[in-house]
User: Fold these one by one.
Assistant:
Number 1:
Amino acid sequence: MTNAANITLTGGSSRTVNQSGVTNGLRNFATNGSGASFTINSGANFKTVSNFTNNGTLTVGSSNSKFTVNGNLTNFNSTTNTLTGGTYNLTGTLQFNGANIATNAANITLTGTSSQILNQSSVNGLANFATNAAGEAFTVAGGRAFAAAGRSPIRAA
């Protein structure tokens, strides 16, 4: 349920199983702990069974990988549209219910043209992004262009 280590899944068929080799060892993964990292790469996709909390680093490290929260991302406050806590390094897709981030109070890095945050209907979860909280980071890299609500686009080298 809680990751307190560093886990990386690489490739579309990657998985973690129990000793019998049958049961998905990450089936109930619900919390990425402080100081922990969870990374998916090279076409690996991951879907939680319910709510998810990221207190560590969540990395979707390739354009063809997707991390889907099948429930609520508890770091997101849908009343204030604020993402709080955790680090999100995205080259691929992070998708969660109600994604509509207006204020970032976490650390987000979007790398490359395929990096995105989507809501459950695949709508841009950063379309209304307007404020980055003091001491937090919103970074674009790898040629990613980004335009905050009502502002000119930012393009990274």
Note: The mean pLDDT is 90.
Number 2:
Amino acid sequence: MDIHPTAIIAPSAKIGSDVEIGPYAVIENDTEIGDRCEIRSHAVIKRFTTLGPSNIVYEGAVLGGEPQDLSFVECTSQLRVGANNRIREGVTIHRGSQPGSETVVGSSCFLMANSHIAHNCRLGDRVIIANNVALAGYVDIEDQVFISAGAGAHQFTRIGRLAMIGGHAKIVQDCLPFVITDGAPGRARGLNIVGLRRAGLRTNEIGILKEAYRLLLRSGLPLEEALSGLERIGDPHVAHLIQFVRNSKRGFCHDKGQSKGKVEK
């Protein structure tokens, strides 16, 4: 363990093995820092925050701050961070706003400088969030999403697996998995072909998703008829797309500016 003498470590903080803590870092009570983490200078780990192993928290980041929520009353809530994340300079992540609630960051994520993750957000694994992205409360992001610089997401929106969000996009409804969403307000712009290839999808799998995109967004079919067509494809990635649409409460971004409503129950 390598702790700089100017760092401030509260008595009840739990510090794992082989942890490095830099100059003027602050680690409050009721925190847990996993093995092999590196907390760099002037970073602040606030109470009720848990970091898994092998995270790097860069200079000036603040993790576990109180929610920016006018209704927030001081309570025990959590920020839980997985393993192998890189959390760059000036990143802010807030804990949950209700008693017992939590904000969750998965593993192997890359959160670039000055991005903000608000209370009760949930990030999956291998999520990349570029500089100055702002996520409002309760945003739900699935695995392997890429959000470009300056984008903003409205509270309670969802971003599906392997989606890409364009720079400075304004996200006010759900963003479909496997799809590029861009603009203000956000519109579906086509499949995230580069991301799908990097994730290891084969040419035939991408071809199936192209057909699913056409049926859902360009066929002109009513939503339920489009979903029925998708079900007949019988592909696991398409099944994930169908479930994502059926779970939507805010509707999702269409490719011509209109937004599809939620599925009638």
Note: The chain has two domains: 2-138, 196-257.
Number 3:
Amino acid sequence: MSKRNIYILGLITLVLFPLPAYLFWYWQDGISLENFIRWKEILKPETAFGMIFGVIYAFFALLFMGAPVFEKLPNRVENLVKSMNLNTFDAIFLSVCAGVGEELLFRAGVQPLLGVWVTSILFVAIHGYLNPVNWRMSLYGLLVLPFILLISFGYSTFGQWFSIGAHFSYDLVLFIVMIQDDEPS
């Protein structure tokens, strides 16, 4: 996949994913774009708390992803990431896109309608991590599911930017660890 396509997919995630959620809440309750995104909350301590939580869970996930059971996984995420030839800027960009775009869609859009549990399971399943024909991938999904559940419950308790911060930092740590061997020193 070319860098151009990677950036296009990132921008689609950032801009287009939240659009249906925003339009639904705009038509449903007349919510403004500013109230949907909640920019004023970005610098609150809850955002930093979410980022710290995401970093901790990412290292926890990396520890488990190194288990022998995952060695025979045919489509390992780190192989996909390495094949994209990402650099640190790319990792930051994609982490921002996924953190903001997916959380606005799922936490702000879907979760109020379907609840924490259904939304979290749907989120993990859509990413391909709950796969009935590949039990190893499903095992990875069960590793990710508690993280998604915790940021989903955290959304209600700590706010949207907690969830965005956690998702962003989780993805960023995984990207950085997975590409570190490929970057020139």
Note: The radius of gyration is 16 Å.
